[in-house]
Amino acid sequence: MSISRRKLLSMAAPAALAAGAAPQAFGGKSKKTVSAPASLMRASRAANLLADGKKVAIACFGDSTMWGSIPGATTTKNYSNPPNSLQLALDLIYPGLTTVSNNAIPGTTIKKLLNGTDGGVGSYEDRLSKSDALVIYCNHCLNDCNSYQSDEHEYKSNIMEFVNITRRYGKIPVIVTPSVISPIRDGKEFMMKRMPAFIQAQRDVAAEMNVDLVDNFYYSLKTSRMIPANKINGDGVHLTDSAYQNAGWNMAIPLVLPNKLINNYDLCGLSTTQYYDNIKHSRAIWDVENRFGSVLTGDSLPEKQIINFPLLLDSPTDHSTLSICGFTSEAGGISNITYFGKSDDLRYSGKINYKISSGLKHDQLFNSEKCFLSAGFHIIGIESSNEMGSGNFNFAGVQLCPKPSNA
């Protein structure tokens, strides 16, 4: 016997809060790109503008690892270059609200960017004065340490000048550390040994000047316990396709501000999270008795409905798995698990069957069929339609759990 929608509501949440069709945190869109006064210096300001439905432009400066050089074919750009990957991530959380430009130039340094000898048009200040971008990323480091012509002190001074110029024009600087490199092929041993001091200079400037830092070195080094470093940097310096994706996705961290999972059994749910959904049929957020305290729910339609949920992993999932929490019921359907909007990604995918023969169970964990996630930023989600299996679908949050012994 099927259970009615009315009965399901009464069983799950007598005081359930029905929500409108539009996502809770994202309102109307502004037709103008937002500019910021000089006093706004952190990316959290841009994150709040995006949460309010305002448009934000972003510009990315840097070297070949920002531009996207392919290992072994460095004059060819990888489509998964960091700015493109950043755009993909932001579109899944703030659809239609951001534009990301790739202004990186291979083989250049922060000093050349500042004085305009990197091959661009004019000095950095000249370019910035004509830019409508609010958020400015810079990953210059590798070529700076790949030379005895400068040291970490001069480099630190140059990074500070980049920050000061950026703020002078009312824009928000974001410093990006390089991903891990290896002393193979294009990777130079002396360069690898010099790099830690330059990365520390980046971290010091971020701390001393209150600047957002995307620490790709930290996340790629943590990931190298699961994926060897030479599989992250295909030629010792330039990144593989998935590593470029990770580097760009991590750049979304200061604009999405995801909750971080560090240890097994850490969890994060709807509370204070910039998730996105396009649920149109029976959308509601229920106050329920589960480990998260709330659940987002909807019923399937012929067209796809989605939930996109961001999170930050401090470590790769070599010893853990990322479980999704929700409820099961007689009215349950079947949904796909998605990873950055795709349901067939080998890193994280599977199906969720929300249907049980009778009753309702509020606090259920669902494991993906595949879970091979790097340290860093991720967007996992739910995709539902009548074609997959009509019925209810829902999402309460995620929890990091020990990897099953047979996995």
From TrEMBL:
Alphabetized GO MF terms: hydrolase activity
Give the signal peptide, or none.
Answer: 1-18
Query: Which superkingdom, per the lineage?
Result: Bacteria
According to UniProt, the name of this protein is SGNH/GDSL hydrolase family protein
Residue span(s) of domain SGNH hydrolase-type esterase? 60-245
Give the InterPro entries listed for this entry: SGNH_hydro, SGNH_hydro_sf, TAT_signal
- Keywords (A to Z) from UniProt: Hydrolase, Signal
